[in-house]
């Protein structure tokens, strides 16, 4: 099976992790500080605050901005449940705007969903592709709304050469299968000094100095042991991205003439880091998405489905008092038609060619 993601730990990382083990400093310390400096550098921001996962990064950002009961946050239903869970747990209501053909949130849909209670917009840079942040920032400015980027899948993705992560607060995940990973991990980036300071306090029980509590906080801290896992990946980031981009181009070249597939694309100025290479199956295929995936699996191509339903299409959200269900036809159509093919940096050219050949065979092209 050619897997959809592959986790490899290099020798430099083994050495660094062993150093941390032997240092006796396992909890948050100097290695987390190093990790934060590298995150801020990647996002082009003044600050990065490390936390224990991407979901707590979203929760921390919402709390630092004072988003809570009575507020509304606009996001897309074509995302991972964590986006929705973080908003619901803040006490704010979730409102949805649909996505466009590039799978990211539609700025026009955001405008349509704004009410007097709207406090923030949470665009999701899905599959590694930045959302249309130029339009979204203009809307946020016009309506005085906060921006929290869900950048869990888009480490280092750029818009006109500028990395995502600096439009307000931005939340990254370092879960095992993300482009950069520590197994579990997260970070919030920002250029705002006071928000960064507030998040550092909130992440550590609300303590400013030892046993001096400024506010009721949390324990969202990352371990030094965990931070050490990512350090060497930052140095290899460009090579990893190039490799993913090359694989994406090779897949597109091999699949471009197939009428039954819509291929992923990068709108003008927005560069993906190819967390996923996601095609959409058209009716011309003459089979369902699930049949297509099963046929790929039967021939050892580890295709994935992200995500099989619009976020509001689960009972626990559909009937939740804080979730406003607004039909989003594009999101629903994608939920039943998308398939992600392996694109990660550990694939060989031969494996990419096999993915193309198997996909063509399954579709009878
Ligand atoms: C992975 C992910 C998250 C949550 O990150 P965790 O580290 O798994 O908590 C949030 N949003 C999106 C879009 C993700 O892909």
Distance between the termini: 22 Å
The stretches of 5 or more residues where confidence is low (pLDDT under 50) are none
- Average pLDDT taken over every residue: 97
Subunit organisation of the chains: single chain
Helices, by number, come to 13
**SS-based structural class?**
alpha/beta
The major pleated sheet works out as: 7 strands, mixed
**Main sheet: strand order:** 1-9-8-5-4-2-3
Helix content: 25-40%
Report the C-alpha radius of gyration, rounded: 20 Å
Structural description of this entry:
Helix content is 39%, strand content 15%. It is of the alpha/beta class and 365 residues long. The strands form 4 sheets. A 7-stranded mixed β-sheet has the order 1-9-8-5-4-2-3, with helices on both faces. It has a 3-stranded antiparallel β-sheet with strand order 7-6-13, with no helix packed on it. Helix 1 runs antiparallel to helix 8 (224-235). The chain is globular, with a radius of gyration of 20 Å. The protein binds pyridoxal-5'-phosphate (PLP).
Record keyword descriptors for this entry.
365 residues, 15 strands, binds pyridoxal-5'-phosphate
Topology:
Layout: H1 11-23, H2 30-43, E1 47-51, H3 54-64, E2 72-75, H4 81-90, E3 93-96, H5 107-113, E4 118-122, H6 133-143, E5 146-150, E6 158-159, E7 162-163, E8 169-173, E9 186-190, H7 193-203, E10 207-209, E11 212-213, H8 224-235, H9 237-255, E12 261-262, E13 270-271, E14 277-281, H10 289-298, H11 315-318, H12 329-335, E15 338-341, H13 349-362
Parallel strand pairs: 2-3, 2-4, 4-5, 5-8
Antiparallel strand pairs: 1-9, 6-7, 6-13, 8-9, 10-11, 12-14, 14-15
Helix pairs in contact: 1-8, 2-8, 3-4, 3-7, 9-13
Pyridoxal-5'-phosphate (PLP) binds next to helix 3 and helix 4.
């Amino acid at each position: 099976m050619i897997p959809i993601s592959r986790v490899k730990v290099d020798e430099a990382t083994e050495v660094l992790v062993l150093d941390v083990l032997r240092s006796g400093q396992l909890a948050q310390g100097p290695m987390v500080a190093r990790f934060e400096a590298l995150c801020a550098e990647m996002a082009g921001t003044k600050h990065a605050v490390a936390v224990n996962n991407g979901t707590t990064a979203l929760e921390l950002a919402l709390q630092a901005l004072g988003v809570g009961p009575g507020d509304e946050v606009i996001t897309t239903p074509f995302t991972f449940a964590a986006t929705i869970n973080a908003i619901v747990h803040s006490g704010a209501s979730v409102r949805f705007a649909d996505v466009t053909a590039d799978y990211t949130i539609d700025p026009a849909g955001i405008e349509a969903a704004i009410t007097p209670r709207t406090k923030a917009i949470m665009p999701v840079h899905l599959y590694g592709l930045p959302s249309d942040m130029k339009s979204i920032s203009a809307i946020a400015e016009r309506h005085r709304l906060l921006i929290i980027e869900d950048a869990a899948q888009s480490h280092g993705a750029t818009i006109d050469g500028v990395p995502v992560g600096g439009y307000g607060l931005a939340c990254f995940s370092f879960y095992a299968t993300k482009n950069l990973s520590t197994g579990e991990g997260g970070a919030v980036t920002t250029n705002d000094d006071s928000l960064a300071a507030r998040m550092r306090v909130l992440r550590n029980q609300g303590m400013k100095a030892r046993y001096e509590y400024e506010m009721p906080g949390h324990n969202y801290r990352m371990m030094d042991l965990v931070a050490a896992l990512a350090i060497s990946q930052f140095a290899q980031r460009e090579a990893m991205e190039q490799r993913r981009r090359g694989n994406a181009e090779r897949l597109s070249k091999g699949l471009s003439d197939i009428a039954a597939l819509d291929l992923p694309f990068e709108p003008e100025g927005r560069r993906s880091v190819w967390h996923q290479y996601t095609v959409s199956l058209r009716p011309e295929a003459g089979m369902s998405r699930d049949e297509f995936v099963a046929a790929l699996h039967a021939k050892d191509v580890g295709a994935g489905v992200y995500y099989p339903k619009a976020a509001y299409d689960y009972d626990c959200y559909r009937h939740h008092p804080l979730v406003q269900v607004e039909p989003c036809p594009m999101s629903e159509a994608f939920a039943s038609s998308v398939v992600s093919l392996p694109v990660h940096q550990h694939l060989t050219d031969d494996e990419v060619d096999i993915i193309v050949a198997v996909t063509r065979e399954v579709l009878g092209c």
